[in-house]
Design a protein that fits this description.
- By secondary structure, the protein is an alpha/beta fold.
- About 40% of the residues lie in helices and about 20% in strands.
- The protein contains 14 helices and 19 strands.
- The strands form 5 sheets. The chain has a 9-stranded mixed sheet, sandwiched between helices. The chain has a 3-stranded antiparallel sheet with strand order 14-15-16, covered by helices on one side. Strands 17-19-18 form a 3-stranded antiparallel sheet.
- Strand 14 and strand 15 form a beta hairpin.
- Helix 4 runs parallel beside helix 5.
Length: about 450
């Protein structure tokens, strides 16, 4: 590896699931602004829904999600009452104008819900919003939660995609992250969802975990491939103990260094490519016929708070504490504290407490960053035709980045700016060069690779 490339492995940059990124949200976008955005949706527009379940029955030390551990179900029951109230309020403001094309249940652990509660939640959603025929329903599954009743409940709500966290099958790694989950257990859940008609299975793998080695990563990927997943995500472990205190349970001496992390990622990616999976963005892989792979080939791939997606809906409505909604006008985020969120929504209110309204400059930079993250390229002609004078200004910046960087992270090829294949693992660092907030912001981020 070239020395300048190795140096970039340790850079701390955003993951760019939005632009501007969440650390730059502010209280100027509140419930009143959010209410106006909901009421202003166009008739017949397609929307996506994200539902956040902020509870787990066991906390994984590696997790950076907004969640908390509970050994009792009463807090979950209380929370679900609040969630149902928020759904009713949001649906009344949407007023039947939006048609739901996709729903994503995330967490936390959505599958810790009792089967009857999951079914009730699915029913409330369909009674509150108009669903398009063939709407995609994705659920993040914790295999340790699963039994026949829960598998049946997921089938009843119409789940079309199951996403299972694997991390690493090595027991030493699992003990270090407080997430013990055998291969056979994972296999049983994959077979269980497929036997109930689920059309797509995604597996999430991690590299850079404590005690993880190239051999353990290779073994995990090889085992995962035997399950024939339709998609696989390969994430670098984000060690952010200043943000998630439970990550202090992981001794930093157990973590691989930047060069080792990079080697693990390349070995895993190589095995997936050898097995015939198509690369999607910088950390996803899919079978060639999968909708995500098709989107990557046709230039219609997008990126939102769930990562890479073929979902084209311009509007994403987040439900639950900490959830982020995306509109043409900007982003709005709900109160993260679960109890306070409940107090805000149970009387018919909204829980949005922060966000950001997009300027035209934000839109142009966001478009460039999304295209880099999705396509590793963007067209100069398209940039100017779409955005006019501001696009021309950003074109000059792109030219400067391409021509003055000795590492050649971004190159001008015809009328397009392209990230060379060997530099694609560093695309987050390249995207950061178009982020006007990055140098002045105080937020701390995870490492680039």
């Amino acid at each position: 590896m070239r020395p300048e490339m190795a140096a970039r492995l340790g850079e701390n940059v955003p993951r760019y699931t939005s632009y501007p990124t969440a650390p730059h949200f502010h209280s100027g976008v509140d419930a009143a602004v959010y209410r106006g955005w909901l009421q202003g949706l166009d008739d017949g527009c397609e929307i996506s829904l994200y539902l956040h379940i902020p509870y787990c029955d066991k906390l994984c030390w590696f997790c950076a999600c907004h969640t908390k551990q509970t050994r009792h179900y009463e807090p979950v029951t209380t929370y679900l009452r609040s969630l149902h109230a928020e759904i009713a309020t949001v649906a009344s403001l949407v007023g039947g104008k939006g048609r739901v094309g996709a729903v994503h249940f995330g967490g936390g652990s959505p599958t810790m819900l009792k089967p009857e509660d999951m079914v009730a939640l699915g029913t409330v959603l369909r009674n509150s919003f108009e669903f398009l025929p063939g709407a995609k329903i994705s659920v993040e599954i914790e295999p340790n939660d699963m039994d026949d009743a829960r598998l049946g409940a997921l089938a009843e709500i119409g789940m079309t995609r199951a996403s299972l966290g694997v991390q690493d099958f090595d027991l030493k790694v699992q003990k270090a992250i407080n997430r013990e989950q055998s291969f056979l257990q994972t296999k049983a859940v994959v077979e269980g969802v497929r036997s109930r008609g689920v059309e797509s299975v995604n597996l999430d793998l991690l590299y850079g975990l404590p005690h993880q080695t190239r051999d353990s990563v290779s073994s995990t990927v090889a085992q995962a491939l035997t399950l024939g997943p339709d998609r696989m995500a390969l994430f670098g472990y984000a060690h952010v103990p200043w943000f998630k205190k439970h990550q202090t349970m992981i001794d930093e001496a157990w973590l691989p260094n930047s060069v080792e992390r990079f080697a693990q990622s390349q070995i895993a990616a190589g095995l997936m490519l050898k097995a015939g999976y198509q690369p999607v963005g910088f950390d996803h892989f899919a079978r060639s016929g999968d909708a995500l792979a098709v989107a990557a080939r046709t230039g219609t791939l997008h990126r939102n708070f769930q990562g890479y997606t073929e979902d084209r809906c311009e509007t994403l409505i987040g439900l639950g504490p900490s959830s982020i909604s995306q509109f043409r006008q900007g982003y709005a985020q709900n109160m993260p504290a679960t109890a306070e969120y409940g107090r805000m929504v149970e009387q018919g209110g909204l829980a949005a407490v922060r966000g950001i309204e997009l300027s035209e400059d934000d839109r142009v930079r966001g478009w460039i960053i999304e295209r880099l993250m999705c396509d590793f390229a963007f067209s100069a002609i398209d940039l100017v035709e779409r955005f006019g004078e501001i696009g021309q200004k950003l074109l000059l910046q792109a030219s400067s980045v391409a021509l003055r960087d000795p590492a050649r992270l971004l190159e001008l090829n015809g009328d397009s700016f392209v990230v060379p294949v060997e530099n694609r693992p560093f695309v987050r660092s390249i995207a950061a060069r178009f982020d006007k907030y990055f140098e002045t912001g105080k937020a701390k981020h995870s490492v680039a690779v």
